[in-house]
Design a protein that fits this description.
alpha/beta; Rossmann fold; 6-stranded parallel β-sheet; 22 strands
């Protein structure tokens, strides 16, 4: 009699022997990529040491993925956080049928979808990664979603060099606290990084203890051997997880699996003769592994081993192998991945449940958001994440009123907040994150924008794997914009954020003024497919100046005070709109009529029309000149000549140049920078009188 446990051990051994053969095939495909890449180079060190963990995961019957529809709900998800191992990922994905093997040729050329690091250009890749310590955070967000029906597991591969990034530990803390027992992180502990391939800049005294201290299950394995990694993966897949996320620390060396010691480096340009040598040696090793498999497999010919033999053959088929008499033949899989079905991104809600704002009354932005989210969050696709500033955004109170499990708080961890938000957006949610204007992490925001751009490029392609609705809807509620932070000091003051983030491609910037306009922006975003939005809102209550039927359109300016006979135009946004209206009243009392234009988002047509009207244009804003920078850009791009005398900027740089703003009350700060109604009207009056005098003297 053969005991069940013995049968299991035989099946496991057979699978491990097949994994070793697959290992050879993947390494040969990696070498092929190097041979035919744009620069004959490859990040060979990290790709090699990550091969055993990744092959074990994808071919050992561990991860349950839907290659035909990578966006279908309920399947396990994978994130390659250490993007330097992209060659191994690409080889595996080509072998599984996510895309054609021809993609492996010509990598890193301008025409290739296979770049130096992975992103959604590659079918089946959900996230653009670095390594920058961020992919693991997105995996954690996936795991949060995977704890609700339909349940699924999430796997991520990171590197020990990447663990030096602080955002990693924000994720480790949050995942442990949230008891994400459906999250499995494999650390490629190869003991090296770019500058030193044989050691780490900061060696870990006890990596296992660090993870364990944050409530993780820790498995430490020798990742130079398949059976140890495979057994650890099985323990996660089949074992008791005790309400904890799992980390498998895969101890290896940089370049492990490469037969020439030339491979023991970070990135290598490999000459043809060395590639030929390595190919030959890898093929010889594959043949040896093949013989080892058959020496084992032939012993299972007896009838009593039929069940074991059948299980091994099944797994071989899943690995895209065909077992012949004395050969394990790799079967080239045709492309399986089909175009994703269209996603309906429009959030469904009852308009009658939205707050009704009365013209002339004051409301705080956080209260408008809270009451609106109570209506919007009835749709289960609405998620929010705050960063210890929920009281300033209204998100957690609003979404949490409906479903507290969709209203998260990342604590003082703004990077992790954005990573969680990205994860939910990838899965089709309309996601909102919030913190103070200066606290958003530029590096995370930029990488998210890269992924959004790649998604949009793929969606636009006729044969792309993604379709309409598979872009990301991620809104950043940036509270305390412009001078609204007041007495908190320079580190918290939001006067420079909008200029910095203006350089993030694919980012839509909106500077909200009145509560009714805010409500209009919220409704516009809930239509779906709006992408990455940076929405700056006021902190103190503001008066409603727009009618109840106000409809927001991105890229449109609004005339809040207009008369054709006006002498000048005052263009502004945010709190500046109120100062502008008061300044207009003061000037009207002196017989001077001016128009006021609210430009919450850049309206290029309005900029041109205003300039071509011949009127003097004052651009007043409580930041470092965001509107002014776009006036210059648009006019220089379109006009053959520009009369600079008709353009008058008034912003926080026109008094003292580029600098950081210190504490003060709003009234003090606005007056100090000449941005309150009194000083704005004085500036306009002085300028217009000077122009009139000059015209008279001519």
């Amino acid at each position: 009699m053969i005991y069940p446990e013995y049968k299991k051990s035989l099946i496991s051994k057979g699978i491990v022997l097949l994994l070793q053969i697959k290992d050879s095939d993947i390494r040969l495909m990696n070498l092929y990529q190097c041979r035919h890449s744009a620069d004959s180079s490859i990040h060979i060190g990290g790709a090699s040491s990550a091969t055993i963990p990744m092959v074990g995961l994808f071919y050992g019957g561990i991860i349950d993925v839907n290659v035909e529809q990578p966006t279908a709900p309920g399947q396990d998800l994978f994130v390659l956080s250490k993007g330097h191992a992209v060659a191994t990922l690409a080889s595996i994905y080509a072998d599984l049928g996510y895309f054609d093997r021809s993609v492996l040729k010509g990598s890193r050329t301008v025409s290739s979808i296979l770049n130096g690091h992975p992103g959604p250009l590659l079918p089946g890749v959900h996230v653009a990664t670095g390594p920058m310590g961020q992919g693991m955070g997105v995996a954690q967000g996936f795991a949060v979603a995977g704890q609700r029906a339909p349940h699924f597991d999430v796997y991520a591969v990171t590197g020990d060099g990447e663990l030096q990034e602080g955002s990693i530990w924000e994720t480790v803390m949050f995942a442990g606290y949230k008891r994400l027992d459906n999250l499995c992180v494999l650390v490629d502990n190869n003991g090296g990084q770019l500058d030193i391939v044989t050691t780490l800049h900061f060696p870990y005294n006890s990596l296992s203890a660090s993870f364990a201290s944050f409530g993780w299950n820790v498995l430490e394995v020798d990742a130079t051997k398949y059976h140890t990694v495979y057994d650890a993966l099985l323990r996660f897949k089949q074992g008791r997880r005790e309400g904890k996320p799992t980390v498998i620390i895969c101890k290896s060396t940089k370049g492990h699996g490469g037969l020439s010691d030339y491979m023991n480096t970070h990135k290598a340009t490999i000459a043809k003769d060395l590639l030929d040598q390595e190919d030959t040696m890898q093929l010889k090793q594959r043949a040896t592994r093949e013989k080892e498999f058959f020496c084992f497999f032939v012993r299972l010919a007896e009838k009593e081993f039929a069940e074991v033999r059948h299980a091994i053959l099944q797994q071989a088929e899943a690995m895209h192998f065909r077992i012949e008499k004395d050969r394990v033949v790799g079967i080239e899989t045709p492309v399986k991945t089909a175009k994703a079905p269209v996603r309906d991104k429009k959030i469904k809600y009852a308009p009658s449940q939205l707050p009704r704002l009365e013209k002339g009354k004051s409301y705080g932005a956080n209260k408008v958001i809270e009451l609106s989210m109570r209506a919007f969050a009835q749709d289960e696709r609405v998620y929010s994440i705050d960063s210890d500033l929920a009281s300033t955004s209204g998100l957690q109170a609003g979404v949490g009123f409906v479903d507290k499990y969709r209203a998260l708080n990342a604590g003082v961890a703004e990077a992790n907040m954005l990573l969680l938000g990205e994860a939910f957006a990838v899965m089709g949610a309309n996601t909102w994150v919030s913190t103070f204007c200066p606290f958003f992490d530029w590096k995370v925001m930029r990488r998210i924008a890269v992924g959004i751009q790649e998604r949009e490029e793929v969606i636009a392609e006729k044969g792309g794997w993604l379709s309409e609705g598979h872009g990301l809807d991620l809104t950043m509620v940036a509270t305390a914009a412009d001078l609204e932070t007041q007495a908190n000091g320079a580190t918290h003051m939001g006067n420079d954020d909008v200029m910095l983030f203006n350089e993030v491609a694919q980012l839509k910037i909106i500077n909200v003024s009145c509560p009714q306009q805010l409500l209009g922006v919220l409704k516009w975003i809930m239509e779906g497919n709006k992408g990455l939005v940076y929405m700056r809102v006021l902190r103190a209550p503001a008066t409603v100046i727009y009618d109840a039927d106000f409809a927001f359109n991105f890229g449109k300016a609004y005339q809040v005070r207009w008369a054709e006979h006006a002498k000048a135009v005052l263009v502004t946004s945010g709190r500046g709109v109120y100062e502008a209206l008061d300044a207009a009243k003061e000037l009207e009392g002196k017989g001077i009529h001016i128009n006021v234009v609210d430009m919450p988002s850049i309206d290029e047509d309005a900029i041109l029309a205003l300039y071509r009207s011949g009127k003097t244009i004052f651009i007043a804003e409580q930041n470092n000149g965001y509107l002014w920078s776009h006036f210059r850009r648009v006019l220089f791009q379109t006009e053959p000549s520009i009369n600079a005398q008709r353009l008058v900027p008034v912003n926080t740089t026109t008094r003292g140049g580029l600098h950081y703003i210190h504490s003060g009350t709003y009234a003090e700060l606005a007056a100090h920078y000449g941005l309150d109604a009194k000083h704005v009207s004085e500036t306009m009056l002085k300028t217009l009188k000077a122009k009139k005098a000059k015209a008279g003297s001519l």
